[in-house]
Amino acid sequence: MVNPKWSAFIFFVFAVVLWSCNNTDKAPPPKPSVVVQTPEELKPTTTQNISDVLAYALQNGGRVADTITLRQVDAVAAFYKAVNYTPIWSENQKWLPIADSLMRFMDHVDEWGLMPYDYHIPNIHRLRNEISLDSAARLDAALWTRADLMYTDGFMQMLRDVKLGRLPKDSVTMRKDTLVNEDFFVSRIQKFLADKNLPEVFEALEPRQAGYHALKAGLKNFLDSMDRTSHTYVVYPFKDSAAFIKQLQTRLFESSYITFNTRVADTAELAAAIRKAETELKIKVDGKFGNQLVKALNNTDREKFIRIAINMDRYKQLPDSMPNRYVFVNLPGYYMQVWDTDTLNMESKVIVGGPQTRSPVLTSRITNFVTLPQWTVPLSIIMKEMLPKIQKDTNYLVKENLMVVDKNDSVLHPSTINWKKLNKDNFPYLLKQKQGDDNSLGVIKFNFDNKYSVYLHDTNARSLFARNNRALSHGCIRVQDWVNFSHYLIRNDSLRYPKDTVAAWIARKEKHWVSPSERIPIYIRYFTSVGKDGMLKIFDDIYGDDKFLREKYFRIQ
């Protein structure tokens, strides 16, 4: 039996431990106003207030006030601890020159593809105005505290976004220097405080690719003439039809396609407004809302700016230095480039996957190419496109130059097969397209390792290269100038493959496998805006990637 004295002692110890665990010191919420009586009291009071506010922010996810949250609160706290919580952006009720310099920089963050609302800029402006217009506010340590913290947090968040961007790391992100710890932030803000050279601090963090800087130069010119009118962004598809109609009507009202927004438009009124918008936007006029209408309404200069910013961030997912030689395919731009020692060696039009059968973004190396390839039709294409036609008329196989092969690679006559019984769960055959100029792969195929089973190739439908919209394939990428591309790949292999060897093989309809001595890297990427000579070119968002990223990671107010 346990001694009653020991039971009491154990209970006491347990109670003390439980009390200590539940009695962690909680910092009090920041006071909205801390007015001092004399100017001399302002600095020490602000210093103490910075310490108190940071203690609260560290316990509350960076929250400082209802509309202020420090996104880099740990780094901000580490920095102020190092300077004994002294305010660094103001002194004697005045902003220091470094604060004015940072404010001017912040007012032009859009030139760096950054969004002002991500860095407290509107809030800082409001505080600066309040302090400049109200003598009592100039003695409010709480205002100076919030301003100091927002300047520092905004500075640090800009450092992070210029270096890494806002896009999440994915399967094609190739940046290795992604560390942004407290030392990263503190060392750079200290460098600015010492050297006073703000652009130098940020320029050192930017991507080195020429494409990024060409895009940034084009952005600056775009901003000079940008229509900054704020329009409602219409989200489509929608979950709530009533909310969507209200949002759509507001957007139509903003562009004067409908004359009122104080009540919900009836069906006829909304249809009339939509027809007016469709006519002006030069899209199909049917008086119905849909993806085409929403896309056109959202195509404002402010939305173009966001798309440009997204593409600047895509460069931040590439390595700082590209290989000496590489192949670059831009899916929305419908082009392939070959780069050799920072020089564009060749460029070709390409045809890429359609929206439902998109070409993947990936990184690989060209391993080999084959002349007069034979196309083995993927099962997905057989089921979706070919089997229904074959079941109606087996002559479809003859017209498409297709042969039926069993598991032993024996060619079967179509009449020996009961096509009506075949489906995706029961299809023990392969369909192969005979080699030759009528083959869907054309006369040459370029291979590279990837999990998607895609490749580059010629095509038997070469007239399609004349189209503006070339998102037409099942996922593989068709190359118009395959001749020069094949020559480039074996440019250093003239002893094995003398000049015109490939052309001679093709002329004789011979199948040959070629393995170049150099396996050139290939980057297939998704860039919807590029810069050249200070101008921008914006491509169609063929797969809706910009739309997805805009709605998930970017905001503009």
Quick summary:
The chain has 557 residues and is an alpha+beta fold. It is built from 18 helices and 20 strands.
Describe the fold and architecture.
Among the domains are: 39-206, no CATH class; 324-374 and 436-542, L,D-transpeptidase catalytic domain-like, CATH 2.40.440.10; 376-434. Helices cover 40% and strands 15% of the residues. The chain is built from 18 helices and 20 strands. The chain has helices at 4-21, 42-59, 73-82, 97-106, 121-133, 141-164, 182-195, 198-203, 210-224, 241-254, 267-281, 291-297, 301-315, 379-392, 395-399, 482-489, 501-507, 545-553; strands at residues 63-65, 68-69, 90-91, 94-95, 325-330, 335-340, 343-353, 362-371, 375-376, 402-405, 411-412, 430-433, 444-448, 456-457, 471-473, 477-479, 513-514, 521-525, 529-532, 535-538. An eight-stranded mixed barrel has the order 5-6-7-16-14-13-8-18. The chain has a four-stranded antiparallel beta sheet with strand order 9-12-10-11. The chain has a two-stranded antiparallel sheet with strand order 1-2. The longest helix is centred in the N-terminal third of the chain and has 24 residues, at 141-164. It is elongated, with a radius of gyration of 32 Å. It starts with a helix and ends with a helix.
List the keywords:
single chain, 557 residues, alpha+beta, L,D-transpeptidase catalytic domain-like, 8-stranded mixed barrel, 4-stranded antiparallel beta sheet, 20 strands, 15% strand
Topology:
Elements: H1 4-21, H2 42-59, E1 63-65, E2 68-69, H3 73-82, E3 90-91, E4 94-95, H4 97-106, H5 121-133, H6 141-164, H7 182-195, H8 198-203, H9 210-224, H10 241-254, H11 267-281, H12 291-297, H13 301-315, E5 325-330, E6 335-340, E7 343-353, E8 362-371, E9 375-376, H14 379-392, H15 395-399, E10 402-405, E11 411-412, E12 430-433, E13 444-448, E14 456-457, E15 471-473, E16 477-479, H16 482-489, H17 501-507, E17 513-514, E18 521-525, E19 529-532, E20 535-538, H18 545-553
Parallel strand pairs: 5-18, 7-15, 14-16
Antiparallel strand pairs: 1-2, 3-4, 5-6, 6-7, 7-16, 8-13, 8-17, 8-18, 9-12, 10-11, 10-12, 13-14, 19-20
